[in-house]
Amino acid sequence: MQKFDSIHAREFQSSLKNQIKLNAANRFIHRLHCVQLVEQGCSCQQVAQWFGEHVRTIQRWVKYTHDYGIEGLKDEQKLGRPNTVRDDQKKWLQQDISQCPNELGYPQKKWSGSLLQVHLRQHYHVELGLRQCQRLLNELKQQAVDGQGQC
After folding, report:
1. Between the chain's N and C termini, which has fewer beta carbons within 10 Å?
2. What's the average model confidence in pLDDT over 41-67?
3. How far apart are CA 110 and CA 100, in angstroms?
């Protein structure tokens, strides 16, 4: 059996990570597999290196399994602060950014994080930091990948 060269190995690892991120079931099986390898005698360091994870992540998964059983590897319910921009507002924002900003009365021709920040404040009465607006803009653009209405 032939080994991957370093370029193909990185591509494979990247592809594997993308597949794992797709859904909770994939993430659960991945975690279970990593813990199983540790339980069979592989070091956390080895497993982390093989799968491109941080050593501390593997150690945490092993601990969760010991503390809570296999259930400890399932995605936990998110306990963070709720989104500042509601889903219905995101739909409206999606329509807004599908237009060129100058069509909405702004002097710019392209959307930016700072322009979105102003737009959110003026039209939605939502205050977000610049970096949050940049992330939101990227998220909205990704959702509109079909290219309709992009300027």
Report:
1. N
2. 94
3. 6
